[in-house]
C-alpha cells in the first residue's frame, strides 16, 4: 500500500486507534495512565502524519535502518514507561 499514500495512512491510523481502544477496553488502569495512553497515541499519529505527508529527501539504506532502529526503540521505551504510570511498587515486608 506504500504506493497509495492516503489509504495507507488511513489504515495505519485505524490500526493505532483500534489498538488503543482495545487496550483501554480490556485493561483496568488509573485515569492518568488512560490519558497517557491516549496522548501517546496522538503522538504516534503526529509522527505518522510527518512520515507520510512531509516532503523530505530520500535517505540512504543505512540512514533509514538507523532511524527505524532509534525510533522503534524510543517508542518501546515510552510505551514501557506509560505502562508503569500509576502502578505502585509492592515491597515484601516479611
Outline the structure in words.
The protein is mainly alpha-helical and 94 residues long. 73% of the residues lie in helices and 0% in strands. The protein has one domain. The longest helix has 24 residues. It starts with a helix and ends in a 10-residue tail after the last helix.
Number of domains: 1
- How far apart lie the N and C ends? 57 Å
- Low-confidence stretches are none
Shape: globular
Please tell me the overall pLDDT.
91
Tell me the structural class: mainly alpha
Share of β-strand residues = under 5%
Provide the gyration radius in Å: 17 Å
Provide a short characterization of the protein structure:
This protein has 94 residues and is mainly alpha-helical. It has one domain (5-84). The protein has 3 helices and no strands.
Identify the notable features of this structure and list them briefly.
3 helices; globular; 94 residues; mainly alpha
Secondary structure topology:
Elements: H1 5-26, H2 31-53, H3 61-84
